[in-house]
Design goal:
five-stranded parallel sheet, Rossmann fold, alpha/beta, about 130 residues, globular
C-alpha cells in the first residue's frame, strides 16, 4: 500500500519539522512547503496529475503578505476533493479568520487555532479520512 502524502505549508521551519515528526509517526509521508510560491507550484503539479495529496495542513499567515486563504482558493480551483481534506491553522486568536473563508462557500475540513492539543485534533481528523 502506498503511503498517503500530506502537504504541509508553513513559512516557519520549526513548525514544518514538528509536523514532519507527527505525520511520520502516524504513518504519513509529509511534503513540506516553506513558502507561498512553492505551495502554488506543488498544487499545479498535482493538477497535472504528477502528484496526489491525501490531505493538506496550511498555516493561515504565509510569507510576503500571502495567506493560507489564497492557497485554499487555489485548491478549490484545482482539487475540490482535497479542499475538504484541508486543515487551516492560525495563531490569530484576536480575529475571526474563519469568517474570511465564508466567500469561498467550500470550507476546509478542519480549522484550528494554534494550541497545544493541535496534534491530537490533527490525528483524529486524518484518521477519519
Amino acid at each position: 500500500m502506498k503511503t498517503k502524502r500530506v502537504l504541509v505549508i508553513d513559512n516557519e521551519q520549526g513548525v514544518l519539522e514538528s509536523y514532519q515528526l507527527l505525520l511520520e509517526d502516524l504513518g504519513y509521508a509529509p511534503i513540506l512547503i516553506g513558502n507561498y510560491l512553492d505551495a502554488i507550484r506543488a498544487l499545479e503539479t498535482a493538477q497535472r496529475g504528477e502528484e496526489h495529496y491525501h490531505a493538506a495542513i496550511i498555516d493561515y499567515q504565509l510569507d510576503s503578505g500571502h495567506t493560507g486563504l489564497e492557497v485554499f482558493e487555489k485548491i478549490i480551483m484545482t482539487d475540490k476533493d482535497l479542499a475538504g481534506r484541508c486543515i487551516i491553522i492560525t495563531a490569530r486568536h484576536h480575529t475571526d479568520v474563519l469568517a474570511l473563508f465564508s466567500p469561498t462557500k467550500i470550507k476546509p475540513g478542519l480549522f484550528l487555532y494554534k494550541d497545544y492539543d493541535d496534534n491530537e485534533k490533527i490525528e483524529e481528523f486524518l484518521c477519519r479520512l
